[in-house]
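Re: weekly structure request thread

Next one in the queue (119 aa):
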Amino acid sequence: MEGLTLFQAAFTVLGVLLLAYYCSRLLGKQWVKSSASGSMRVLEHIQVGQNQKILLLQVRDEYYLVGVSQAGIRLLTKLEGDFQAAEEFLQPGGEPLPFRELLNKYLPPHKKKGGDTDE
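Done, posted below.
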């Protein structure tokens, strides 16, 4: 019995890649259906450490800030407000505002010792 020819090896690798792609698409669709069907959504998340995240969760009409790490899941706080309206952080073209503009918008001007404001 001879080994595989180059054509047979390439055909086998292509077949395995196509099956892997099909299975990943099928499993991905199933996961989206199961995660989006409930009344809980992850609105935002941020990585704060190697295995640590902070999640902004919406459960019906309430919002929660949750910390996730290897040690477990911990409720940080319940939040007030509507976190869906983030249009104030976007420029007219849909691009995010530069960080400096956000700081200037939400932080009061810094006063120097002489009484002048820092521009």
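The mean pLDDT is 76. Strands lie at 40-49, 52-59, 62-69, 72-79.
Next request, please.
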